[in-house]
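Notebook, bench 3.
Goal today: get a predicted structure for Glutathione S-transferase family protein from Chromobacterium rhizoryzae so we can plan the truncation constructs. The sequence was checked against the plasmid map this morning, with no discrepancies at the termini. Length recorded as 232 residues. Pasting the sequence as submitted so the record is complete.
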Amino acid sequence: MITLYQFGPAMGLMDPSPFVVKADLLLKLSGLPYRRVRGDMRKAPKGKLPCIDDDGQMVPDSTLIRLHLADKHGITLDAGLNAEQKALAWSVDCMLGEHFYWGIVHERWMVDAHFERGPGVFFKGVPSLLRGLVVALVRRKVRANLWGQGMGRFSEAERLRLLEADVEALSALLGERRYFMGDAATWIDASVYAFVSGALTDAMGETPSRALVSARPNLVAYAERLRAEFYP
């Protein structure tokens, strides 16, 4: 049985990491038996979650997990997609993971009001005398990552415009289809659902991403459909 290492429920979500949710739904779509276990980033390959243990083979990263399912188990989760659709799915996945994600990171970690209701809960187990220092150090590291990636260099208005462009693209591409690429779920639904449902959480109040996604009825309906189907 495959073991998926995750963070666990938090912030009104089955997991605060959209990449963990993506990996979880990929495994659901694969039909392979698996279990969820709380992971430790210090012991994980590449120091990140998610990762899976598939019969002793450790596989990090949600995208590498998808490719592993194809290589080892022959489960590509792209049946019926032509070459153009496969390219579109890959492009959307990259937009979500390499662009939209960093907008979410900024609003969750750098905006005090959202941080206190969101990632701040991760630090409740830290002794009170050390908590302030630990929080400051971790947020400083996140800020440096955001600066290096680029999202941290933009103004609030610029970040909002970039997030809006991502959400507009997702909404236009989805249209009125049941699943992102048509009448059947494919691997890209794992990624789109993970990020859309994550943005819709109200645990941190009215974040920019929540406001933008909530304003697109087709994205809201999509998230509700997939939640009912895969996470009843």
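The radius of gyration is 18 Å. Residues 83-109 form the longest helix (27 residues).
Flagging this for group meeting.
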